[in-house]
Amino acid sequence: MRYMKEIVEDKNLEFATKWERKSNLAYTQEDIDVVRAEWENHVMQF
To answer: Which superkingdom, per the lineage (predicted)?
Structure first.
């Protein structure tokens, strides 16, 4: 979900280029938890 969020929010369409240089980049558990909390808040609004 975090990966998809970064793709959608990339206004310059440079996401692929950024990730080519960071092939070993991984999300931390904190990064994942932030997206989970955002998703939860969005779903709870319905």
So the answer is: Eukaryota
pTM over 0.90: no
Using a CB cutoff of 8 Å and minimum separation of 24, what contacts does 27-35 make? 27/2, 27/3, 31/2, 32/1, 32/2, 34/2, 35/1, 35/2, 35/5
Tokens linked to 6:
């970064």
Q: Which residue has the tokens 């929010």?
A: 9
- Name the residue ranges covered by the structural domains of the chain: 2-44
Condensed to tens digits (0 to 9), the pLDDT of residues 12-43 reads 777 667 666 655 667 889 988 998 999 899 88
